[in-house]
Amino acid sequence: MDTPEGTESTDEPTTDGPGTETVEVGDATPEPAADVPKERSVPGWAIGLYVLVALAIGLQLALGWVLLDNSEELYEVSAQNNDLVLRTAGIRDDVADLSEELAALDRRVTNAQSVSVVGEGVAPTNEGLPLIPSSGADPAVGMALPTITGPDHDSGRELTIGSGGLATVTIVWAHWCPYCQQELPMVDALLKDGSLDQFDAVQVQSITTFIDEDRPNPLDPYMDQLQLAYPVVVDETGAYAAQLGIQGVPAWVISDQDGNILGRFSGAIGEEAFLGVMEEVQRIATEGGA
């Protein structure tokens, strides 16, 4: 429908046909849409960092399990080592005990091999001591030392073994005995260099026995050679040896200051053992008891 000039047109609803209204929309401006946040992409370096952190955490956990497992194994190994150390210590103790027993056996064997046996012809007299046993306790311990008086080889004066109020270590030897020839100068050297001065309650004496001029190393030239610092009682017949129960030389007879037997044994003993004997006899003499 035409609108006359000068007349404002209004958008009136028109009816296209009966019962129908049509609404015309002019140039209406649409309302702006609400702001929609844009999607942000994660940088590649960040993803790599996340992956590295995750790997590090996983590695730490794995190492923790490994260390825990290894710690248990180390504890078991340590316990086994401790048990091994204890067993080793026990074995060492057993070995030490066995070594001592073997050393004692070796000493007995050595002594047995370092004795010049005279033979069964020498027997103890009725007033003498029983024979020195080859092993075990000496039955003469506590018995009185037989009275043995004879001439000193060098001076000719009569000398009684065990006299003088001192404990006495008596060496019984023979001039032809090779083992005696080892012991005599050893004891003499200790006397001369002052090593025995500390044993002031003990004296050293000796008896030469089983004299046989037909055997090697005759007595008189040998004595001239030795020039011993201790007295030597001469047993021409072997009677003194029989009284002391001796069948082999060298032999050692030890008595206290009261003339009682402390012990007897046969064989070469060497310097260390001899000094040990002297020390023990000194102790008994000064302390008054075995």
Number of separate helices:
5
Determine the strand fraction and express it as a percent band: 5-15%
Mean pLDDT figure: 78
State the distance separating the first and last CA atoms. 160 Å
List the helices and strands and how they pair.
Blueprint: E1 14-15, E2 21-22, H1 44-113, E3 116-117, E4 149-151, E5 158-160, E6 167-173, H2 180-192, E7 202-208, H3 219-226, E8 232-234, H4 239-243, E9 248-249, E10 251-255, E11 261-266, H5 270-287
Parallel strand pairs: 6-7, 7-8
Antiparallel strand pairs: 1-2, 3-9, 4-5, 6-10, 10-11
What does this structure look like?
By secondary structure, this protein is of the alpha+beta class. The chain folds into two domains: 46-113; 118-287, Glutaredoxin (3-Layer(aba) Sandwich). It is 39% helix and 14% strand. The protein has helices at 44-113, 180-192, 219-226, 239-243, 270-287, and strands at 14-15, 21-22, 116-117, 149-151, 158-160, 167-173, 202-208, 232-234, 248-249, 251-255, 261-266. The protein is rod-shaped, with a radius of gyration of 57 Å. The termini are far apart. Mean pLDDT is 78; it is low at 1-26 and 120-125.
